């Protein structure tokens, strides 16, 4: 056992084992002996040649910025429990989440489908909005700082990165942040802002869709050069998410998508095009016009009465019986086979029934990520399931044999299920 693994911080947080290392320190699996729970502990290390004034400044900033996200209570931000100074450096005590990062998932499975990336993006927008309203800028949003715990998307390391706006730290020559995910204005030396976090979100979602960030090159300098001088490449696998990605990756921060506009575009993409529904078949009526042709057909020497038959297209609108509107369906749909014994069954009411179903765990297993056609059903018998129904009015849902009440158009429903 190493000296660090024998260390107990603040007489209560025992280091158990090393989880991983990054540019600024080490993350440890720990145990809170006072509350008897597992915790994650981030040990922050400074460059050895950092001046004493810069070291003091860093400690103060770490304490201030780590305490701020500790006040944020949201499902999509990792919870910070404590900050302590031990052995001359800061240690951040956080919620322990046993789940892979988005970076690990991309490395293991390759690019993700747009529907799943949209779900991840929506959760991260909520996390950023909560933090930015509290005056906190992340500064280092990237796939390795996004954890995927079943249906839960968690942003980690909030406020723990160095501030790129610090003149004293800039003088040391250390580039702060991840070059492949840093906003152009921050790379150029400007202060990080909420808009620069939105750029990093765009680069993160781009990487999830394409398998790599938009400006990643063979080294830091080449990456920064591409970021400064090259146009943003169009994503090839984004589908309906393309307007969101390109809007977030606008190099001019004043033209970059705001939170509200990014949410609007993302939700439009998740809902699908409104014109995607089948257009009603045009109705025609037969117009029979009896006209007397007051001419004598010379070849026959007789008068003729002609029937002129034409087809006129009706404009969409109420039918002749529109006065008696069809009552809304209030009866429950007949259960499909197996619904009574399955953990989850989903059947499409319309062609807009979009679902994402997974089995939670250290390595999440995706069961479905698709849009069902009307009448199509999916059945799941796994005892533990996380599910997202993106339009509750488009799907009938049975949970442990019981049909759930229909939802409103455009309403998203999340299910965390354990079969009893």
Biggest sheet record: 6 strands, antiparallel
Give helix and strand order, one letter per element, not per position.
Answer: EEEEHEEHHEEHHHHHHEEEEEEEEEE
Q: Give the termini separation.
A: 42 Å
In spatial order, strands of the major sheet run: 1-2-3-4-6-5
CATH level 3 topology of the largest domain: Transferase(Phosphotransferase), domain 1
Oligomer: single chain
Q: Which CATH class of the largest domain applies here?
A: Mainly Alpha
Tell me, rounded to a whole number, the average pLDDT: 79
CATH-scheme architecture of the largest domain: Orthogonal Bundle
CATH superfamily of the largest domain: Transferase(Phosphotransferase) domain 1
State the helix count: 9
Question: Roughly how many Å is the radius of gyration?
Answer: 30 Å
Runs in which pLDDT lies below 50 for 5 or more consecutive residues are 161-174, 275-331
Give the strand tally: 18
Kindly name the structural category: alpha+beta
Approximate strand percentage: 25-35%
Domain module tally: 3
Tell me the overall shape.
Answer: globular
Give the proportion of residues in helices: 10-25%
Describe it for me?
The chain has 420 residues and is of the alpha+beta class. The chain has 3 domains: 1-96, Phosphorylase Kinase, domain 1, CATH 3.30.200.20; 98-273, Transferase(Phosphotransferase), domain 1 (Orthogonal Bundle); 344-418. Helices cover 24% and strands 28% of the residues. The chain has 9 helices and 18 strands. It has a 6-stranded antiparallel β-sheet, covered by helices on one side. It has a 4-stranded antiparallel β-sheet with strand order 14-11-16-17, with no helix packed on it. Strands 13-12-15-18 form a 4-stranded antiparallel β-sheet, with no helix packed on it. A hairpin with a 4-residue loop joins strand 3 and strand 4 (37-44). Helix 3 (114-133) packs antiparallel against helix 9 (259-271). The longest helix is centred in the N-terminal third of the chain and has 20 residues, at 114-133. Residues 161-174 and 275-331 have low confidence and may be disordered.
């Amino acid at each position: 056992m190493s000296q660090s693994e024998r260390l107990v911080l603040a007489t209560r947080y025992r280091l158990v084992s090393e989880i991983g290392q990054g540019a600024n320190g080490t993350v440890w699996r720990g145990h809170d002996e006072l509350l008897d729970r597992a915790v994650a502990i981030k040990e922050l290390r400074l460059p050895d040649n950092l001046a004493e004034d810069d070291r003091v400044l860093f400690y103060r900033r770490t304490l201030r910025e780590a305490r701020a996200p500790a006040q944020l209570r949201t499902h999509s931000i990792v919870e910070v429990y404590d900050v302590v100074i031990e052995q001359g450096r800061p240690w951040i005590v956080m919620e322990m989440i046993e789940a892979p990062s988005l970076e690990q998932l991309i490395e293991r499975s390759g690019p993700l489908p747009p529907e799943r990336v949209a779900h991840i993006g929506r959760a991260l927008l909520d996390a950023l909005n909560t933090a930015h309203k509290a005056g906190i800028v992340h500064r280092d949003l990237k796939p390795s700082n996004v954890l995927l715990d079943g249906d839960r998307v968690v942003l980690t390391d909030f406020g723990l990165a160095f501030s790129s706006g610090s003149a004293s730290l800039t003088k040391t020559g250390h580039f702060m942040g991840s070059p492949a995910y840093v906003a152009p204005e921050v790379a150029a030396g400007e202060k990080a802002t909420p808009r620069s976090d939105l750029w990093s979100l765009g680069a993160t979602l781009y990487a999830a869709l394409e398998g790599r960030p938009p400006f990643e090159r063979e080294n830091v300098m080449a990456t920064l050069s591409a970021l400064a001088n090259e146009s943003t490449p169009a994503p090839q696998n984004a589908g309906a998410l393309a307007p969101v990605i390109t809007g977030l990756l606008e190099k001019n921060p004043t033209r970059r998508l705001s939170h509200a506009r990014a949410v609007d575009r993302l939700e439009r993409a998740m809902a699908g095009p409104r014109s995607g529904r089948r257009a009603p078949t045009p109705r025609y009526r037969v117009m029979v016009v009896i006209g007397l042709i007051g001419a004598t057909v010379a070849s026959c020497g007789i008068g003729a009465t002609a029937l002129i038959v034409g087809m006129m297209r009706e404009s969409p609108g109420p039918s002749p019986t529109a006065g008696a509107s069809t009552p809304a369906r209030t009866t429950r749909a007949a259960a499909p086979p197996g619904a009574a014994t399955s953990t989850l069954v989903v059947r499409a009411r319309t062609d807009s029934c979009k679902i994402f179903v997974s089995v939670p765990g250290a390595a999440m297993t995706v069961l479905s990520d698709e849009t069902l056609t009307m009448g199509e059903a999916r059945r799941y018998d796994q005892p533990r399931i996380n599910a997202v129904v993106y339009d509750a009015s488009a799907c009938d849902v049975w949970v442990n044999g019981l049909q759930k009440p229909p939802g409103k158009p455009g309403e998203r429903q999340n299910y965390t299920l354990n079969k009893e």
